[in-house]
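Possible regression after last week's pipeline update?

I re-ran a chain I had predicted before the update to compare outputs. Posting the input and the new output here so someone can diff against the archived version. Not blocking, just want to make sure nothing changed silently.
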Amino acid sequence: MLLTFTLTLFLLTLLPWESCSQDSKPPPTRRMTRTPRASAAASSSSQGLHAGTTNAKFVTSFNHFSFGADMGHPTDANASVETVTFSSHSDGTDGPEGYGNRVTQQNVTQLIDRLLDGYDIKVRPPGPTTEVMVDILLRSMGTVSESQFEYSMDCYFRQSWQDSRLSYGEFSNISTALLPLGVAVLAKIWKPDTTVYNGKNSYFHDITSPNKFVRIYRDGRLVYSQRLTLRARCPMQLQKYPMDTQRCPLNLGSFAYTQKDVLYRWKNGNDKAVVLAEDLKLSQFYLLAAVGSNSTLRSSVGDYSMLSVEFTLQRHSGYFFIQIYAPCCLTVVLSWVGFWLNREASGDRITLGVTCVLTMTFLGMLVGMGSP
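New output (post-update):
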């Protein structure tokens, strides 16, 4: 026992007491510094914000630490310094906490408020005649009803006109070429009162929000786009049904303004008045052409500028051959079998004749239900 106690005391005297004392030292504290360059940049950016500028730069320097896995204390107090630079541009893409977006939105809001200050929505744009350019993107065509003499279509209807009251070219601090605006601005500016003269039941799309927008260019030109479902009348000639070709018109124009005030034109010319979607297909017709034209609608209150587009529709005949013509031909051929039966087999001939008559009656009723 004495020998063991002596050896233990000897080993304790050999331990490095200085290393133990170093481990008991408190961990180094975290240091956060800001360079003078950051302060100068921050002050200059705040001055730029009050001056209405759209560019600012922030520079922040901070000590980079590597943290331990146990208590989260820094293990390297002499780590390198990392510099992070934030910049906000006129498009509002970069910047700390969306600063560029706030600057751009503030400038656009001030610009819109200045343009609409004193703007009279009840008066059309100044000038002798307001020219409205129209183009249509046809997404789909719905049911073509021969009994109701109507057709429906889903399209993007775009109008463009010049309004010098909304020109912002003199404002040099706005560099964007156009301002895409929402539905709220539409209620504060003048718009053409375009209507469909041969329309029956048309409506706007408002799911999940009103499908409209307006864009204002620097020179005061406006582009107004909206999604519509139009149902219009179509005078049909059914003498050659079901191998007919129909021409369905769509007539557009102003409801209140005569052609002295508002004049309508196709933006891309008469041949390209309507642009067809690549995946456009109809169930019962081939859409052969869509040709536009300009005309004048004369009435007792004045002459109105009118745009027209004529859709040429050719009916699919394959359905009628399979469902009507082929069964009728087979029934007639089957009735000829009675001529080859024996004269004594009168019951078989009567049964065959009655069957053919009932089949033709059923086919006639089927054709009458689906035909105009």
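Follow-up from reviewer: compared with the archived run. The chain is about 25% helix and 30% strand. Marking as no regression found.
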